[in-house]
């Protein structure tokens, strides 16, 4: 949206001062950058045997490194389920079958650590990295 406000004066004649156009376009642009850069994840350092669950904003990862519990077993499973959107009287009710691929790590004390992936090849790649890391431990 911010880019559209910035580009408009190049195509249309406007009487609005350029400073106002920059502010009105810049605020949504900055908010959008903040939103698309916000995500969370987990980092595992097998060499130092540490794990970090983090939140990221503006690509800066904030979290605390903790000792990695022993991993007894790692496997890939898939979970298929039926998804339906809620009927609201306006949009059609759509139903689809969704498959989620999961890397499941069984930790000491019967605790599970699960990583979800939408694509099978991403889950296979992650499991291979985990198994490679387990060989380092």
UniProtKB/TrEMBL annotation:
This is PH domain-containing protein. Keywords: Membrane, Transmembrane, Transmembrane helix. The chain crosses the membrane at residues 21-44.
């Amino acid at each position: 949206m911010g880019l559209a406000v910035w580009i408009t004066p190049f195509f249309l004649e406007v009487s609005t001062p350029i400073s106002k156009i920059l502010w009105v376009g810049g605020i949504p642009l900055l908010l959008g950058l903040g939103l698309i850069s916000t995500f969370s994840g987990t980092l595992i350092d097998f060499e130092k045997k540490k794990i970090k669950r983090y939140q990221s904003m503006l690509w800066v990862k904030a979290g605390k490194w903790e000792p990695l519990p022993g991993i007894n077993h790692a496997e890939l499973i898939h979970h298929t389920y039926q998804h339906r959107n809620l009927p609201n009287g306006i949009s059609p009710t759509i139903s689809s079958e969704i498959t989620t691929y999961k890397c499941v790590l069984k930790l000491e004390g019967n605790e599970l650590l699960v990583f979800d992936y939408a694509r099978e090849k991403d889950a296979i790649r992650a499991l291979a990295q985990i198994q490679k890391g387990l060989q380092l431990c």
